[in-house]
Design brief:
By secondary structure, the chain is mainly α.
Amino acid sequence: MFEPWFKAYVQHFAYKTATTKEWKDFLYNYFPDKHDILNTVDWNMWFHQAGMPTQMPKYDDSLAIACQHVAASWKNSSNTHDLKEFESLMPKQKIEVFAILGEDDSLTEKTFQQITSTYNMTEVKNSEIRFKWIMFGLKTKDDSAFASGQDMATVQGRMKFTRPLYRSMNAWRSEETKALFIKNRPFMHPTTAAMVAKDIGVN
């Protein structure tokens, strides 16, 4: 419902500026059968009230909470985990779990190794998940994570992965990281190579 409206809005106001009144009028005109719902919105509050809105939308955050719960449970070594726990999550949730783990300074290399073994992470092919897993491992200074980081930085060239990988590896094992980059540089996109070279201090 929203996407068709947004497309119509962009087409209607293309190359123009729109006031809040024009925006609101277009909304009402596009949804003539939704006026009762639209009239429940406190437009004066949203358009004119200073500070944070007094009416904040409520979103279903159950998927995010599940990720937080899984990540937090690894802080206590007495908790038990299995592969089914991880497989029950959607891909974006798995990415979020490792993003949370990677921000936790209290977790150690031992925890990373336990997670890797329990979740069978060496077999995961999804690049987004692998990237977050490797970045978590590099933070704990795990040798296998460094090796996986080297592999990922070599076999794919997306800057969103490559630059953070090289920066993290270089912060820990600079000599090896620079050697890897020099080896891979001829096969990298020129822009990516130039940015990584700047990141890790290679001429």
